[in-house]
Amino acid sequence: MKIAIVSGTDEGPTKLNAFDNALSDAGIGDVNLIKVSSMLAGETEIETLPKLKAGAMVNCVLSEITSDNPGDQITAVVGVAIGKELGCAVEACGTNKDPDELIDEAEKMVKYMMEKRNVEIQDLIIEYATATVENIASAIASVVYLNDNIIEE
Q1: Which CATH number covers residue 92?
Q2: How do residues 40-81 score in pLDDT, each as one tens digit?
Q3: What is the pTM (predicted TM-score) of this model?
Q4: Catalytic entry in 32, 96, 135, 147
Q5: Which domain holds residue 17?
Q6: How many domains does the chain have?
Q7: Catalytic site residue 91?
Q8: Nearest to 5 by CA among 40, 55, 30, 56
Q9: Catalytic annotation, pick one of 64, 91, 107, 127
Q10: Can you say how many angstroms the Cα of residue 38 is from the centroid of all Cα atoms in its chain?
């Protein structure tokens, strides 16, 4: 199994446009995202996000937050733990929360999921995006599940 871990932030004239712009900032704005639960195959490989086919149906774990309250600090986090047998991914987000606290929360959750399954962690990755809202802003972080059918050749 191969994944890419991405994040992005942006503003827009509406909440939907801000979210769409944040997806584009992360490189996943031109595909259809299908939110899935948080399981990965063992020894999952992490790659740089390739160019995806426009309109492709793309599985992902997605953390997203949008605010239209100027001055808010918004943060979206994903955490990934990979073991030999399997891996797990989690998401966390918050408004006006210390990004380090959200990062710690994601790390604790993903470590717990692996511990509960008695799987030793070989690799632990945390990705996050944070922004201060000017008008309407969105922050996203995502684990994108890659396969040959969605990658532009």
Answers
A1: 3.50.20.10
A2: 999 999 999 999 999 999 999 999 999 999 999 999 999 999
A3: 0.96
A4: 32
A5: 2-150
A6: 1
A7: yes
A8: 40
A9: 91
A10: 11
